[in-house]
Amino acid sequence: MQLPIRAGLCLTLALLGVLPCALAAPQTVILVVLCCHDAVMRRPCAHFPTDFAGLTIGVNTGFLLSEKLMAPARQGLLRLEAAKGNEANLKKLALRRIDCYASDRGAARHTARQLQGELAGYGFQLREVLALSSEATYIAYSAHNAPSYKADFIEKMNAALRAMRQNGELARIEGAYLP
Asked: Which of 26, 119, 158, 176 is the most exposed place for a label (fewest CB within 10 A)?
């Protein structure tokens, strides 16, 4: 069965063992962190998930979550609430509509920096409590679209990214967006 490929779907299905796409070599590793508002930070936050029991944790719709977060949610220990993207979740966190927010560290920091003026009115500062997991990232290529040059393109893309990683260019680009 051929599934339509949409942003994020291919990687999610690949990680679940259903692979309607080809994956390039791993590109980088993201750190999935839990950020919480000040009231949560005043209580013990050392042991996950027990110190977070009863809290509502915001997540991005369609984001593949760490099993470390999913298992306690399935057990009813904490509640997950999905919203469309970092901006919506950070605003909900600033307004205390959610207690914490689980996200890719770089994306959360970048979006918080973009919204700094707007969120400052709420006295909001992005506060990381703990790291939930680290995940490799990939470029996914559709299995449905298979031109004759595809394998060569993937090989050349991997080589170019490998060279950029080795000469520090990727680190400079990431540093500009993800300080």
From this structure: 176
